[in-house]
Amino acid sequence: MTDTLTSSIEPDVAALDAYSQVVVSVAEQLTPRVAALQVSRRLRDGSIAAGAGSAVVFTSDGFLLTNAHVVGKAEAGQAAFADGTTVPFHVVGSDPLSDLAVVRADGATPAPARLGEASQLRVGQLVVAVGNPLGLAGTITAGVVSALGRSLPTRAGENMRIVDDVIQTDAALNPGNSGGALVIASGEVVGINTAVAGVGVGLAIPINGITRQIVATLMAEGRVRRAYLGLAGIPTPLPPPLAIRLDQKTGMRIEEVVSDGPAARAGLRPRDLLVRANGEGVTSAQSLQRLMIGDAIGQPLVLTVLRAEVLIDVVVTPDELRADG
Question: Is 178 a catalytic residue?
Answer without folding.
Answer: yes
